[in-house]
Design brief:
With 128 residues, this protein is mainly beta. It has helices spanning 52-60, 94-97, 106-109, and strands at residues 8-11, 13-17, 22-31, 35-41, 49-50, 72-74, 77-79, 82-84, 87-91, 102-104, 114-118, 123-127.
């Protein structure tokens, strides 16, 4: 069956994170052409976030403005070379605890109407 227009699919990786011996589901999120973030896929969290380190890096690259406020608009996003909708994030501490760049929360899923996760392969399919 061909994919639905706007549908994206990506593979979750279950990887050790941080220094606490925990494992999290991680997905790569590209911002523009040069920035690759390792983010925890956590739809149980309401809002997506990035670490302060990532915010500072994005400011240094001119991708976001220094006076972005508490909500930062990320655009030109891709997962596995597939475009994904723009996303408003905040700076949070959770990602830093896991030594990762950010968290993809429930707000990331808003533009989609359904999510299918193959529990054998951890392949996620989001459809509009």
């Amino acid at each position: 069956m061909p994919p639905t227009p706007g549908e994206i699919s990506f593979q979750l990786r279950f990887v050790p994170t941080g220094n606490r011996g925990t494992r999290q589901f991680v997905v790569g999120l590209s911002v523009g052409l040069d920035v690759q973030l390792q983010t925890v896929f956590q739809p149980a969290m309401l809002r997506s976030s990035i670490s302060a380190r990532v915010r500072d890096d994005l400011i240094g690259r001119g991708i976001i403005k220094p006076d972005s406020g508490s909500r930062i608009a990320l655009s030109d996003l891709r997962i596995d070379r597939q475009p994904v909708p723009d996303l408003g994030v905040r700076v949070g501490l959770t990602a830093a605890v896991f030594d990762l760049d950010g968290i993809l929360g429930a707000d990331f899923l808003r533009p989609f109407s359904s999510m299918h996760v193959d529990l054998r392969t951890w392949l996620v399919r989001l459809t509009p």
